[in-house]
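--- STAGE predict ---
source: upstream dedup step, 1 unique chain passed
mode: sequence only
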Amino acid sequence: MRAAQIKRTTAETDISLTLNLDGSGVSNCSTGCGFLDHMLTLFARHGRFDLTVNCKGDTYVDDHHTVEDVGICLGKAFAEALGDKKGIVRYGNMTLPMDESLILSAVDISGRGGCYYALEIPAEKVGTFDTELCQEFFIAFARDAGITLHLRQLAGSNSHHMMEGAFKSVARSLKTAVSIDAAFADEVPSTKGMLG
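--- STAGE serialize ---
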């Protein structure tokens, strides 16, 4: 089973997170940030990842530290659960419609983390959630997972739909990228013999 358990405590957040890449999409997310919980729940479902997240953060300040630190922990969990990366497909992409929004994501489990984000979310807030934190989450996640992530908005006007489309699209891209190609089960998918 490709799984990981991450614990991270700082002066701003206290997080415990478990991830199973070969799950069924079951999740239990309690971060103190309702919108983030919603996004993580659908991320788990669409990626078929089992995910549990508990975070106590300084949300009385704002949601920034919670969102970024959960992204860090989820990225670390992906990196740990992938292990030596033997047999993985490595690449995945998805163009996902969410009503009027159309979001493209592409991932490379390269070992070289980077987020190339091109969403122009029109609202500053959805409920109490600062929409700029969507980018902060994906930057932290991609960096700590060692994943090259491209996110593009092909259409969209509703801020909630655009962010939800991004989380769903990335989950589905990752579902493909982390899957095992049985024909190459004992090989690292790189001519260098390693990813990183």
